[in-house]
Every structure is written in structure tokens, then in C-alpha cells.
Amino acid sequence: MIGIIDAGGGERAVYGAGIYDWCLDEGITFDCLIGVSAGTANQASFLAGQKGRNYRFYTDYAFRPEGMSMANFLRTGNYVDLDYLYGALSAHDGEFPLDYATWQKNAADKTVICVATDARTGKPVYFTKDDMSEDHYEPQMCSSCVPLVNHPYAFQGGLYYDGGISDPIPVEKAFELGCDKVVIILTRPRDFIRPTDRDEKIADFLRLRYPKAARALAQRGTLYNLQVQLAKAYEKMGKVLILAPDDIGGMSTLTKDHEKLEIMYAKGHRDAAAIRAFLEKE
């Protein structure tokens, strides 16, 4: 079974959009898709066969005040309006709806996972395709809900934050699910060492209301770095292919810069060419 993990990364995840568009052009598919944060949206459009859809979200909709803005934050406490991006725009009657019928058909024989973090326990939650239906893409919203940028997202009686807090690169999960080979999409250079200080500062703001999520957030850097090392070990065994940009040009999670986004998309489209040789290698 061939798997793909998309670790997301906000606007940097346009790198993954380039990879999936290359895969659509080349007719490459995967048996197991695990998305984290914006990676869940990348994978949804990929399964729906909608080349260029994710690119438009990063380079157009994210620039709209309805998508990401201080006006949103001042009005609702949410800088990113997840219901606008994954709801109003993506619904069947939205401006750029997800082709749910095609998504459902293509996902039928695949394992599809959206990783989120339970705000109350700090533990990872693995939503499946059965948790989504047409016009109900809440697992993607839960997985993409960044602390401080957003309030935790309410779904099925729970409260959820970004999946990158508790399982940023779920390579062990992929092999537990039965994958033989896994492509991993990162949106920072492969040798990037994630510092812990910024996460610890953000965790301080969460500690009063969500102490267990705060604890997980404070430990995210350490976990991320360990998971990268694990992925590299699997890569040496021929079981993993890591795709990561050689440089991110100063981009952060919420960077709005058309030129930088174009460059990151092009890097993804270029780097994706390594997938074919990886899959064909015994």
C-alpha cells in the first residue's frame, strides 16, 4: 500500500499543491492519504481530481478579508475564517465547490485521514472519510485550526486544534495503517530544526483554558524534529520519500505574497518528479 502524508503549513502548503497537480497530470494515485492542517485541503482537491483548485485558494481566496484578516479576528476572534474557506467557498453552491461526487468515488477504496488535536486532552484525533459528507468538511477545519489564530473548532461534541500540534508528521501512523511506502510532504527544508521557544510562548496563552493542548504545543518542536529523523531513517531503508523545498524564501504560515507563493508552487511541481522513481523502485 502506497501512502502520502501532507504535513501542511498554512500558506507554505502551496508547495504541496504543486506536487498534487503534478500527480494529477501524471496519473499517480495513493492508497492512503494522511493530511495535517492545510494538507487535508490539498488532499481533498487531489482526490476530487480538481487540478489548480488548491492553488487558487492559496493565491486568491486567502488574500480576501473574508478568508484571512485582522477584521475577522476583531469581529470573531478568528483570524482565519475556516467556515468561509472550507464551507462557503467549498460547498456545492459555493464559488469553487469541492467536486464531492468525484471525491467520494475516488476515496471509496482508500484510507483517508485528517489529523486534528483534541483541545481538551492534547492527543491526536484521526478523522476518517466517514466523518465527512457533502458540504460538511469539518475534519479539515478541525485539522487547520491554529491556536491563537483561531478559537478551537467545535465538532461532534469536541473542541479541536491543528493536527500539527500532536502529530505533525504521522509517519508511524502511516505504517500502522499498512503502508509499505510513504511519500512525505514537508513545507520547510528537510534539515530544518524546529525551535521550541515560539511554541512555548504560544502555549502560555493556552495553558489556562486548555492545559493539555498547551503541553502538547510546547513539545511540538521536539516531536517534529524526532519525526523528521524517523522519516529520514525510513528513507534510507527505501520506505519513505521526503519532498521538501530547498528554501522557503522567508515564508511563514500566514504569508501573503504572490511572488513567494508562485515560487513555492513551482518548487513542489518540480520536486514531485522524484515520486515516480520512488514508486517504481523495488
* Strand coverage percent: 5-15%
Rg over C-alpha atoms, rounded to the nearest angstrom: 17 Å
Write the element-wise H/E pattern from the N-terminal end onward: EHEHHHHHEEHEEHEHHHEHH
Task: Show unreliable segments.
Answer: none
Biggest pleated sheet: 8 strands, mixed
Helix content: 40-55%
Helix and strand composition category:
alpha/beta
What is the overall silhouette?
globular
How many strands appear in the DSSP assignment?
8
- Give the overall average pLDDT: 95
Distance between the termini: 13 Å
Number of helical regions:
13
Q: Would you kindly provide a written description of the structure presented here, covering whatever features stand out?
A:
Strand 1, helix 1 and strand 2 form a beta-alpha-beta unit. The chain is of the alpha/beta class and 282 residues long. Helix 2 crosses helix 6. The protein is built from 13 helices and 8 strands. Strands 1, 2, 3, 4, 5, 6, 7 and 8 form an 8-stranded mixed beta sheet that branches.
